[in-house]
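From the methods appendix. Each design record in this collection lists the tokenized structure first, followed by the designed amino acid sequence. Records were kept in a plain field format so they could be parsed without special tools. The example shown here is representative of the layout used throughout.

RECORD:
FOLD TOKENS (301 positions):
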């Protein structure tokens, strides 16, 4: 019988290259927020994939970017520290890149420094010609000895099996770190907060910058009048300015109602129960530089 293998796999890359979408595909279910905006992922989110002869623990890290706040610094620190901690690194780049850009080079230098076992994922190949993809593969090949280079398309479901098999090849024998039924290390409160934030970011588009933070004030199981189980959830969306608060609430509360409706629909699928969701909006000026708030996003050992 084949020996059981296990290990931790860090997914790293610049912002908005599709790391969270790839993680959700590999996990076979949604564990990370997916919004077509940079710096959506703020913490190291774990997704557990149990296979016949292995357990792979993926760590989706914040996109590496030029920080402009304490939160930005914390996000970068989380991403950088995940490389030496991982058994295998998945380095995600965009096929649309014209050669190796500054940001990718910075990540590549860290990978070289750590001599990390790395698989290169070239995402969004549907947007470029075959020649461009081959050119990019050659450029990266000259820079580092990758364990594998896998081109994928974000629009079509990536060949999950190929990626998982390549990872498995590079893992060592080891125990299962999590129970078989676990698929993420996030608490239910984390998942609820992230679901609300995702809906807000999607609906608000570019009207409100990334200064949104959701806190779950109350999450309690109760009964409806018909004696059916229901989750009563109260949440606060924090934003940076009064003008942002007005946009989030919308005319006659229309935008906030929309955010709540879409979030509730998703939450009822996640929690498999009816949900009664109440959301408030509060201004917390410059919270992205407030140590009390920012420490919530720091990597936990």
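DESIGN:
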């Amino acid at each position: 019988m084949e020996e059981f293998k296990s290990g931790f796999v860090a997914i790293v890359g610049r912002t908005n290259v599709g790391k969270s979408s790839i993680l959700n595909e590999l996990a076979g279910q949604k564990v990370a927020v997916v919004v077509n905006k940079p710096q959506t992922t703020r913490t190291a989110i774990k997704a557990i994939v149990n296979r016949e002869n292995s357990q792979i623990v993926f760590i989706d890290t914040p996109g590496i970017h030029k920080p402009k706040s304490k939160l930005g610094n914390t996000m970068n620190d989380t991403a950088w520290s995940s490389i030496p901690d991982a058994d295998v690194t998945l380095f995600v780049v965009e096929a649309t890149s014209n050669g190796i850009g500054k940001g990718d080079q910075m990540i590549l230098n860290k990978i070289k420094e750590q001599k990390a076992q790395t698989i290169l994922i070239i995402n969004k190949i549907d947007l470029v010609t075959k020649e461009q993809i081959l050119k990019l593969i050659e450029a990266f090949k000259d820079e580092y000895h990758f364990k594998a280079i896998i081109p994928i398309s974000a629009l079509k479901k990536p060949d999950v099996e190929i990626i998982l098999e390549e990872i498995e090849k590079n893992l060592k024998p080891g125990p299962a770190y999590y129970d078989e039924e676990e698929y993420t290390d996030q608490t239910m409160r984390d998942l609820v907060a992230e679901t609300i934030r995702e809906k807000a970011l999607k609906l608000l588009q570019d009207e409100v910058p990334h200064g949104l933070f959701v806190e779950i004030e109350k999450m309690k199981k109760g009964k409806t009048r018909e004696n059916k189980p229901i989750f009563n959830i109260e949440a606060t969306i924090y934003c940076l300015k009064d003008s942002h608060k007005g946009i989030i609430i919308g005319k006659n509360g229309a935008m906030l109602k929309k955010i709540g409706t879409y979030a509730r629909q998703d939450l009822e699928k996640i929690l498999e129960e009816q949900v009664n969701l109440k959301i408030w909006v509060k201004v917390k000026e410059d919270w992205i530089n407030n140590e009390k708030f920012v420490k919530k996003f720091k990597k936990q050992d």
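APPENDIX NOTE: The longest strand covers residues 213-223.
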